[in-house]
Amino acid sequence: MISTFTMSGMVIQLLISLLFPVGLLIYLRKKQLFSWKPLGVGILIFILFSQILEKALHIFMIDSSGTSLKWSDSKFFFVLYAALSAGIFEELGRYFGFKWMLKKHREYKDGVSYGLGHGGIEAILIGMFSAINALVLGTLINSGVFDQTIAKSLPADQVAMLKERIIGTQFWEYVLGGLERVFAIAFHIALSLLVLLGIRENRFIFVINAVLLHALIDVIPALYQTGVVTNIWIVELVLAIFGITSIIFTMRIRKRYQSKDSLPL
Q1: pTM reported for the whole predicted model
Q2: Which tens digits make up the pLDDT trace of 181-195?
């Protein structure tokens, strides 16, 4: 059985993943720091480059275990691939979106809005939907019909693994899952501003920096996924540091956008 307390953690993750991006959108609109088209392009590019193109490559590169490559059992190569693929696909996608789809959107608010679109849809697809999935499975387990429903459509070992994961996940882990989305949105806004600044100032090195920073933040989760790092609090601490640093960067870089030395090309 899954306790009501744990189920409430699922609800908290769901609410944070949905309400934080929506609330941030409302706040940015009131502060006149929002534009719709960059938001939409951010959503579109994330789905195309991350959820379609990157995942298509994963089919050929990652084996069914999800923790190693098809051609190597090396954890090092898996972590390297996982980190770089995320950085390359998402940041080059971000560059493509700004360079060719948002030619007339080069202001600070456009970078912020794009980042919100990118991070917001990720929060919904990963944070909210995974919480909904956990709620549904938890309800099936508590009502005693899990084996009669889910078990019929999956192999026995996958059913046992899925059930064990849902039962074993604690309240605080779901809450952390929601907070991760907050840090991730802050990170995506910062990287969007960095990539856009590179386009404004014709400095592609900023795009490369964004790729490397994105890869760097994905190293720790990949190490946790492969079992090299076993303490989840280390992962969350690193993500929190990146998130807080991203907020500071986002606030400070605004002056650079307003400077005459950084005019759109």
Answers
A1: 0.94
A2: 999 999 999 999 999
